[in-house]
């Protein structure tokens, strides 16, 4: 699963604070799911991947890695 939900205040459980994001299954690059104004991107609302990303065999790849995988 490449979508990571946001966490806040869970340091006592060993979970670092983070924002909701998609992470590339190949290189680990990530794309935040919310704009600077706190609103989600339209692609997230529509249930799609970030622009330029692709899903292959249930794995998500960023723009850079999508060409390496093929």
Query: How many beta-strand segments?
Result: 5
Total tally of structural domains: 1
Anisotropy-based shape: globular
Residue-averaged pLDDT, rounded? 86
Describe the 3D structure.
The protein has one domain (3-69). A three-stranded antiparallel β-sheet has the order 1-2-3, with no helix packed on it. The protein is built from two helices and five strands, in the order E-E-E-H-E-E-H. The model has no long low-confidence stretch (mean pLDDT 86). It is 11% helix and 20% strand. The two termini are 20 Å apart. With 70 residues, the protein is of the alpha+beta class. It has helices at residues 42-45, 66-69; strands spanning 3-4, 21-23, 30-32, 54-56, 59-61.
Q: What is the topological layout?
A:
Layout: E1 3-4, E2 21-23, E3 30-32, H1 42-45, E4 54-56, E5 59-61, H2 66-69
Antiparallel strand pairs: 1-2, 2-3, 4-5
Quick summary:
This protein has one domain (about 5-70). The chain is about 10% helix and about 20% strand.
Task: Please supply descriptive tags for the structure shown above.
70 residues, alpha+beta, three-stranded antiparallel sheet, two-stranded antiparallel sheet
């Amino acid at each position: 699963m490449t979508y990571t939900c946001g966490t806040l205040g869970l340091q006592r459980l060993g979970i670092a604070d983070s924002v909701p994001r998609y992470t590339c299954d190949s290189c680990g690059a990530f794309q935040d799911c919310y704009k600077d104004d706190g609103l989600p991107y339209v692609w997230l609302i529509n249930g799609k991947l970030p622009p330029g990303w692709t899903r292959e065999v249930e794995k998500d790849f960023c723009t850079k890695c999508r060409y390496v995988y093929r």
